Automatic annotation (TrEMBL):
Keywords: Membrane, Transmembrane, Transmembrane helix. It is found in: Membrane. One of its GO terms (molecular function) is metal ion binding. Its main location: membrane. Residues 126-294 form the Cation efflux protein transmembrane domain. It is a multi-pass membrane protein. It holds the Pfam family Cation_efflux. This is Cation transporter. It comes from Zoogloea oleivorans. The chain crosses the membrane at residues 121-142, 148-170, 182-203, 209-231, 252-269, 275-293. GO terms for cellular component: membrane.
């Protein structure tokens, strides 16, 4: 039967992702309720926070999930039509390309994990990101730096997703969704407030403190490296380890952007570099808020 058998009529085709897993020698468990396994490329999924969004989007629809953040792919074991899975992922706005779909010859074997250790790591991730949100927010307000405020919002965005993931443990999908949407609305309001602050500075001017921008951003960079270490300690080796470095590198780019902007502010004697980098990071934060609010 063909791949279309995994659509509205159920699954019954040959080959596909499951066969590929067997050919690679990967372990599979006995089939459960899932009848199909489909693999998707999610182009903008490059960090654990975005992985959490995909998990929440597919909650109640997927019987198994396997992520490869390095390749930006997710394999989904499911009984519902593949179009439903594809629609839920696409709704997040991170891109969704169906790579393969076929019969579920098995489900991914559950990895041995230490829930208490994972909860501790998640709590530390939340604490680090939340602390840097407060530090960068206060420093940005004092230094009149849009870049620092925006970088702090980027930390808040990650903290919000980790908080929702921590809150969701042992709770139903409805409560998870409510918590996620609350975080999304708060992130959206803060992002809009940032753009209001940038506009106010452009209209009335500001005396941005360049050294504060650079110093606090270096601290944020160190915090991101700490997060990478925590994530790597609870990931498999290989691709997952590399994905953790990608995650940190992406956040570090924002830190480096603020550091460079601070240097330009000091060199040019103009706050414009700060306003520009603040607007760019702010736009990224708003895009993340929209993704969260698209969860259904």
């Amino acid at each position: 039967m063909s791949e279309s058998s995994c659509s509205s009529t159920g699954c019954g085709c040959s080959g596909g992702v499951a066969a590929e897993r067997v050919s690679r020698g990967e372990a599979v468990a006995a089939p459960g309720e899932a009848r199909c396994v489909s693999r998707f490329r999610v182009g903008d999924m490059d960090c654990p926070a975005e992985e959490s969004l995909v998990r929440m989007a597919l909650d109640g629809q997927a019987h198994g999930l396997e992520f490869d953040l390095l390749e930006r792919t997710v394999s989904v074991w499911h009984a519902v039509p593949v179009e439903e899975i594809e629609s839920r992922i696409a709704r997040l706005g991170m891109g969704c390309e169906r790579l393969a779909s076929g019969p579920a010859e098995g489900a991914p074997v559950a990895k041995v994990s230490d829930p208490a250790a994972e909860r501790r790591a998640l709590s530390w991730l939340l604490a680090i990101n939340a602390a840097m949100f407060v530090i960068e927010g206060l420093a940005g307000w004092w230094a009149e730096s849009s870049g620092l405020l925006a970088d702090g919002l980027d930390m808040f965005a990650d903290a919000a997703v980790y908080a929702v993931a921590l809150y969701a443990v042992g709770r139903g999908a409805a409560l998870q969704l409510k918590a996620a949407r609350f975080a999304g609305w708060l992130q959206l309001l803060l992002g809009l407030g940032l753009f209001g602050q940038v506009a106010e500075h452009v209209l009335h001017g500001s005396t941005t403190v360049a050294l504060a921008m650079m110093g606090v951003s270096v601290l944020a960079l160190i915090a991101n490296v700490g997060c990478m270490w925590l994530i790597a300690g609870h990931r498999d080796g290989g691709a997952h380890m590399k994905a953790s470095y990608i995650f940190t590198a992406n956040d570090a780019l924002a830190n480096l952007g603020v550091i460079v902007a601070g240097g330009l502010v000091a060199w040019l004697g103009s706050p414009w570099p700060d306003w520009v980098v603040g607007s760019i990071i702010g736009a990224m934060v708003l895009a993340g808020a929209v993704r969260i609010l698209r969860l259904r």
